[in-house]
Specification:
Layout: E1 7-13, E2 21-27, H1 45-49, E3 52-56, H2 57-75, E4 81-87, E5 91-93, H3 104-114, H4 130-141, H5 145-156, E6 167-174, H6 179-201, E7 211-220, E8 231-237, E9 240-248, H7 252-263, E10 266-277, E11 285-295, H8 297-303, E12 311-313, E13 320-331, H9 334-337, E14 343-348, E15 350-351, H10 357-367, E16 370-377, E17 383-392, E18 395-401, E19 416-417, E20 420-421, H11 427-436, H12 448-462, H13 475-478, H14 484-493, H15 499-517, H16 530-533, H17 537-555, H18 559-574, H19 578-585, E21 594-596, E22 624-626, H20 636-648, H21 655-659, H22 674-679, E23 697-698, E24 701-702
Parallel strand pairs: 1-4, 1-6, 6-7, 7-9, 10-13
Antiparallel strand pairs: 2-3, 4-5, 8-9, 10-11, 11-15, 12-13, 13-16, 14-18, 16-17, 17-18, 19-20, 21-22, 23-24
Organism: Musca domestica (House fly)
Pfam family, one: Mat89Bb
Protein name: Protein asunder
Length: 703
């Protein structure tokens, strides 16, 4: 009773404008035959061909608003109250908050007495919808039967409520010229609302309005343009929010059906494939569809959200409907229901088109003591029974059934999985992951909400890629065999990575590249890694680099992360991964944008399955675009050259190069033959001077 939909008031414009035609003509078939009155002249041929009629704007607004009431009262027999106010020269109250007037018969009889507006009535400024809006605010301040009980208990001191909640919604169906006219209606409504709250503070018999939701529907004839534009919900003040919708007269019923789903948190389900016998030929049957409305929880109770349910948009509608297929009907007895899965939730249902023949047949079928199972297709193939339709006590309910393992069964073993028994779950890694993200009390001036937001964001980023088993990962299989890998993963996970961390990671990447060029086997130690060992050496390094790329992408938050990611992609390209080569070639695009393929597929898939065009993998995410034009790009040659220079700087240079002037060639054995020249200068034989080019081979350097 504290929701804003506890009170709903329809304000219907009964001015002269609503007596005009909606321009939605309904053709009539002329039946040939004799009239009951022989004196009646026959209709001319021209009249027989053009026999048609159209509803007025007033009739369209009354029918759609009453259909709104029917849906609400079918789904919520008590607690959701609706009132009608007709506005012309004054406000005419159709019903009250008393339960005796909250029914279709009372409202229809009152509307029949009101009648269609007179189009030939004299023009007067007294005709206005403002009278009805004023009366609607006064009606919102009136207490309902439940609020009266709370007020009496409050006076007696028997209730713990300091203030009785009072919220409501006003739906005004009118027609305005332009947006300034709509703005004027909103301002008048807002001022009257503030005045009413001031009056309510001084009186005990009425309640102040905590919040009011004003929905203005601007209705025009068919194919007529309007200057009023749609506007989403907007808060004008703490006690008033408004929204504006423009629709033609034939579409107002669909508009209100769309609005009622958000007003009362409803969802739509279309039951397809209902076999029904043809009305004209009883020997043949056809399949029909029936759309029903119910509480949204009937969908969300199964999977937590509606994302996994098959949805579609019906022609002419603005909302989605979940499509479920008719299954074999059964009875409603205990023996018939014993085979059904456990029920998670049940809610009343009502058809959208209550007057159609398929809806009538489905309702009568269920009210006669039968129940129907509804199937939904699985994305992995096949179907599963997800809902049940049945009737009890003259009311039809939809039941949300358990489609996963029931909580009533024995708990599953940790080694059980969809592919049989699995014994290589990463239980220790998962426990360490939980310990690393524990929350502890912190005495700080920072707001707790900020810390909680940071913790959630960190947990989200680090859990984007977490293989459940060791047989579906390479990186976490090798972190005990490769000495540098655990430290590399810790550095990558740091949110404040600095230049030192980047240099260490670059050295690790260089070691990986060196091992790949030497065709060294990756040191797998897990016995469950037989599938990994079956790949070629080059493919193993491709998959290893691909998984490292996924991990780095989930942590990439600094320019250092981006540099490391680029170097990993260079190593993948050097290993012959064609997909990465095409991505690296895309960096020459003049726009400076690079498209990097992000995949969460298992790295143990064959190399061709890494392509985003493959349809065989179910874990490939959408490609993400990143622009690294502001980060200095380093090629593989730059990485190798910098590593060689850093190694050479630690060694003493060749003495011949140090002593020889720049541009000259160093002499080999310059003192050779000098001792013989000192012993016998006369017999000295001139030595031919030879200059030899020095070819120095230092590891990593060639001169």
């Amino acid at each position: 009773m504290y929701d804003i939909n506890q009170k709903t008031i329809f304000v219907l414009d009964h001015t002269q404008y609503f007596s005009i035609s909606s321009e939605d003509y309904v053709p009539l078939d002329f039946l040939k035959g004799k009239s009951n009155n022989p004196s009646d002249p026959p209709l001319p041929a021209s009249s027989q061909q053009n026999l048609q009629f159209s509803k007025s704007l007033w009739t369209s607004s009354v029918e759609s608003s009453i259909e709104y009431c029917r849906i609400v009262w079918d789904l919520f027999p008590r607690g959701k109250l609706i009132r009608f106010i007709v506005s012309d020269t004054a406000a005419h109250i159709v019903n009250t908050w008393k339960f005796a007037t909250q029914n279709m018969s009372h409202v229809l009889n009152a509307m029949a007495l009101v009648g269609v507006p007179q189009w030939n009535a004299p023009q007067s400024s007294d005709y206005s919808v403002i009278h009805g809006l004023r009366a609607a605010i006064e009606a919102l301040a009136e207490p309902t039967e439940q609020q009266l009980i709370l007020m009496q208990n409050q006076e007696a001191g028997a209730t713990g409520l300091e203030k009785i909640p009072n919220k409501g919604r006003v739906i005004c169906i009118t027609s305005a010229r332009d947006n300034p006219s709509m703005k004027s209606l909103e301002d008048i409504f807002h001022n009257v609302l503030l005045q009413q709250n001031t009056v309510a503070m001084a009186q005990k018999k009425i309640l102040p309005i905590d919040h009011c939701h004003l929905v203005i529907i601007n209705m025009v004839p068919m194919n007529k343009e309007t200057l009023v534009t749609n506007r989403a919900k907007k808060d004008l003040s703490p006690c008033l929010s408004t929204e504006i919708h423009t629709t033609s007269a034939p579409e107002i019923s669909n508009k209100l059906t769309h609005l009622i789903m958000s007003h009362y948190d409803l969802a739509s389900t279309t039951v397809t494939g209902i076999p029904m016998k043809e009305e004209q030929n009883a020997n043949s049957s056809a399949n029909y569809d029936v759309e029903i409305l119910h509480a949204r929880n009937a969908h969300t109770a199964i999977c937590g959200n509606e994302a996994l349910l098959p949805t579609s948009i019906k022609e002419g509608a603005e909302y989605e409907t979940v499509t479920l297929k008719w299954c074999t009907p059964r009875g409603c007895g205990a023996s018939d229901m014993s085979a059904c899965p456990p029920c998670l939730a049940q809610h009343r249902v009502t058809p959208v088109d209550v007057t159609s023949r398929p809806s009538s047949c489905l309702i009568n079928f269920l009210l006669n003591g039968r129940s129907v199972l509804l199937e939904m297709p699985r994305k992995t193939g096949g179907k599963t029974t997800s809902h049940l339709l049945s009737a009890r006590g003259g009311e039809i309910f939809i039941h949300a059934l358990q489609i996963t393992r029931s909580c009533l069964e024995d708990p599953p073993s940790i080694s059980e999985g969809p592919g049989g028994r699995i014994t290589d779950y990463r239980i220790a890694d998962f426990a360490a992951f939980i310990k690393a993200h524990r929350l502890v009390p912190l005495k700080s001036k920072v707001k707790p909400e900020d810390n909680l937001h940071i913790a959630r964001e960190r947990l989200y980023n680090r859990s984007l890629y977490f293989p459940l088993t060791l047989s579906t990962t390479i990186v976490f299989n090798l972190q005990r065999s490769l000495a540098w890998l655990p430290n590399f993963l810790r550095k990558i996970a740091k949110e404040d990575m600095d230049k030192t961390d980047e240099i260490q990671c670059q050295q690790n990447i260089y070691d990986l590249y060196t091992a790949s060029t030497r065709r060294e086997l990756l040191p797998f130690s897990n016995l469950n890694a037989n599938r990994i060992k079956g790949h070629k050496k080059v493919d193993q390094y491709k998959l290893f680099c691909a998984e490292l790329e996924v991990i780095i992408k989930s942590c990439a938050s600094t320019p250092y992360h981006k540099k490391i990611l680029e170097n990993i992609q260079n190593v993948r390209a050097a290993c012959g991964d064609a997909t990465v080569k095409s991505e690296l070639d895309a960096t020459s695009d003049p726009s400076g944008k690079t498209i990097i393929r992000a995949t969460t597929d298992s790295p143990l898939s064959p190399p061709h399955s890494m392509d985003t065009s493959s349809s065989g993998t179910g874990h490939i995410s959408k490609a993400t675009k990143r622009n690294f034009s502001n980060v200095g790009q380093r090629s593989l040659f730059d990485i190798v050259s910098s590593a060689e220079r850093s190694q050479c700087s630690k060694r003493t240079d060749f003495s011949g190069r140090l002593c020889t002037p720049l541009g000259q060639v160093a002499k080999l054995y310059p003192d050779f033959g000098l001792k013989d020249a000192d012993g016998s200068a006369t017999t000295a034989t001139p030595v031919k001077e030879e200059t030899l080019g020095i070819k120095l081979e230092v590891p990593g350097i060639r001169t």
